[in-house]
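Q: What residues go here?
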């Protein structure tokens, strides 16, 4: 993926690594959705955008393949060098080198398809807030007559702003 990331203007980027992950996730999510919709109607289902499950590549159960009985079984079934998914080697090949994966790889490599609003997420909400000057000025309707300018409230002033 393209590593030329910088924080967008108007956004507080406290964690640049989180920003990189969010940008990559949004990019992949939009592209995967369009590819899945396109290849969902094709038969046979060889080109899937969701990775096939390979138990030997799973770090949580990888240790169970190290005993002698399992090694003999894997050697007998020609699965002793990393193995394949439950769907077979052809599905694994299409997942790694098929047209959908080539498309995703090119998009990630060149950083295409980013929408500023999607990348920024919730951190962009009210990031570039400008002061609101309404019809009656900065302080609203309570100070628009001469009497209210002199004494805006009977209960005291609750504002740090100047009154006029």
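A:
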């Amino acid at each position: 993926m393209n590593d030329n990331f910088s924080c967008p203007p108007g956004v507080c980027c406290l964690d640049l690594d989180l920003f990189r992950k969010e940008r990559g996730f949004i990019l992949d999510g939009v592209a995967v959705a369009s590819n899945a919709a396109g290849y969902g109607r094709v038969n046979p289902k060889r080109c899937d955008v969701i990775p096939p499950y390979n138990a030997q590549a799973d770090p949580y159960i990888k240790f169970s393949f190290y005993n002698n009985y399992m090694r003999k079984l894997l050697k007998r079934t020609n699965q002793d060098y990393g193995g394949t998914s439950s769907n077979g080697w052809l599905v694994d090949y299409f997942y790694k080198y098929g047209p959908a994966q080539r498309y995703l790889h090119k998009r990630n490599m060149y950083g295409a398809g980013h929408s500023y609003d999607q990348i920024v997420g919730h951190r962009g909400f009210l990031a570039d807030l400008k002061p609101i000057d309404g019809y009656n000025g900065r302080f609203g309707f309570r100070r628009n007559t001469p009497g209210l300018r002199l004494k805006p409230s009977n209960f005291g002033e609750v504002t740090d702003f100047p009154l006029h």
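A: Context that may help when evaluating the design: The helical segments are 16-39, 68-76, 89-97, 99-110, 116-120, 146-150. The CA atoms of residues 54 and 84 lie 6 Å apart.
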